[in-house]
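---------- Forwarded message ----------

FYI, see the Polyribonucleotide nucleotidyltransferase record below. Original note from H. follows.
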Amino acid sequence: MFKSFSMDLAGRPLVVEIGRVAAQANGAALMHYGDTVVLSTATASEKPREGIDFFPLSVEYEEKLYSVGRIPGGFNKREGKASENSVLTSRVIDRPMRPLFPKDYRNDVTLNNLVMSVDQDCSPELTAMLGSAIATVVSDIPFDGPTAATMVGMIDGEMIFNPTNAQKAVSDLALTVASTRDKVIMIEAGANEIDEDKMIEAIFAAHELNQKVIAFIDTIVAECGKPKHAYTSCEVPADLYDAMVAFITPEAMETAVFTDEKQVREENIRVIKNSLEEHFAEVNPEWIPFIEEAVYKFQKKTVRKMILKDQKRPDGRAVTEIRKLAAEVDLLPRVHGSGMFTRGQTQVMTITTLGTLTDAQRLDSLDENEKSKRYMHHYNFPSYSVGETKPSRGPGRREIGHGALAEKALVPVLPSEEEFPYAIRTVSEIMESNGSTSQGSICASSLSLMAAGVPIKAAVAGISVGLVTGDTDDDYIVLTDIQGLEDFFGDMDFKVAGTHKGITAIQMDIKIHGLTRKIVEEAIRKTKTARTYILDGVMNPVIAEARPEVGTYAPKIIQIQVDPAKISEIIGQKGKTINKIIDETGVKIDITDDGKVSVCGVEAEGINRALEIIKTITQDIEEGQIFTGKVVRIMQFGAFVELAPNKDGLVHISKLAKNRVEKVEDVVNIGDIVTVKVIEVDKMGRINLSIKDVE
């Protein structure tokens, strides 16, 4: 049965249609936010997938170019692989949804969001987040929802909810907050050095608005919600767990995991698994398929008890203690900039490469504001970084997400195009991983950018805090600088990056049903303390500010402004003029429609010569000016000197030298570079030059 529901959301109508389309999905919602339309569906398999120990949730966000009235490029004229924005949006939808499914649920679930129409002032990403929650909560799939999401911008210190495209373009904040009925369950933010108090205020203002959306969703569920279906639990058998604990003992498991060496811990656990398999093969062979998950559960309980009750971390650190830190720059001699940041067994090297603005990445985006980006951060996580072996298949969703987070953290401190007319690419190579490589990549990238001579406004550092909770909201502990084991068995990975002045990026992942305000505030405060320590104690002593110039092997770019009407003269017929300049000087030249000319080269001599030629082309020749040019023709009465392509002047034989010249070739030959002075520009525009009058 088709039903429609509506509410006002941040001054625009939100309309949800249930039962209009996709009736065979377990749940479907056709979402309208303004003129943005997204079809969100939730489907589940009838039976659990065998042989897995995780919940197989897939989230898809499909961008269709027909939604903005465009035909895809390329030979096939259809959408290709998911864009970076699609991947990042899928991750943002996934993070608040995943913790609310039953932990012992093993049925495949797919949440699909099809973007069908885009109103630039009504975010399709936000619409898809709401649609996924509604489609799931009205379905028969077990789910402890609903959730709601709100985006927050900030202009001149004032918060704006679900900002329009024009507002986003000038906003100092791009914050997305997802909530359950009582708690915050997901935070994603990019910010222009927003202080901690303002960020906390914005998070909980969004949380308050989310409660109104959840009340609206409740009315939809009351009329359209299906009873949740029964499912086969994949919980470890209680008898197996008890037998395992009796055989291994809690003391032995604590000894196995209590080490700061990841490889040692993994070997200890491998020995435990082997002994369990040998033991149960004799007494209960039917339990062997459950051993992997049973040992995971035993480790988790042991680590959580050690941290929460005994105040002991697996590597022996104090609750607020950061692992051993180290920073370096200039590791690679020929690259434009390099930096390495080490935190315990997490090590990241970032390489910076500079190019002209034509090297900026062009985006085929649904967002009309996003045509290209000049700063690109890429993150690579090879298997050797965790002591494993597998072939490289290109970046996965996690790598794309971590790269985007670091990019978001660093964009606010980058110089403008006018200040630094370069395209910039940083690549973070993970050398070793034991937790929080994304934040290590932010620190390494900041070091690398400064080493490359990129005049960033301030150094940026990132740190992650974790959480272990007990039976009540007040029974918890927040851990500074979580390692891999604490992330794996803990409840939260709260990543915050920023400068001394404020926050530039946040990403929060949790495995529980939300965080109280008290926990969020404590987490943000602890990241501020840790971030300050990293900046002052580790990064600044190595390199405190950007080097005054780009490196020896980096291109040098000088930008000048010319009259846009003169651009055609620089380019010349079929590009002949500009290509001649490039061939002569060995530089690269970029010209924008508004007359900005960027000359890029490694050698200063070639850059200066190209600039001189361009200035000569674009300026009017006047008496008294001095030029350097090439002799291109010799006649009996004098020599023609090329001041710039298609702009020659005559040096009469009488003006070649102070003494009498019998033959032009006695003074100059074709190809000679000479310095000349303009002595006359006649009514016909002909230029007369002199060598002897150059002072």
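H. also flagged this: The chain has five domains: 3-150+196-224, 238-308, 325-539, 555-619, 621-695.
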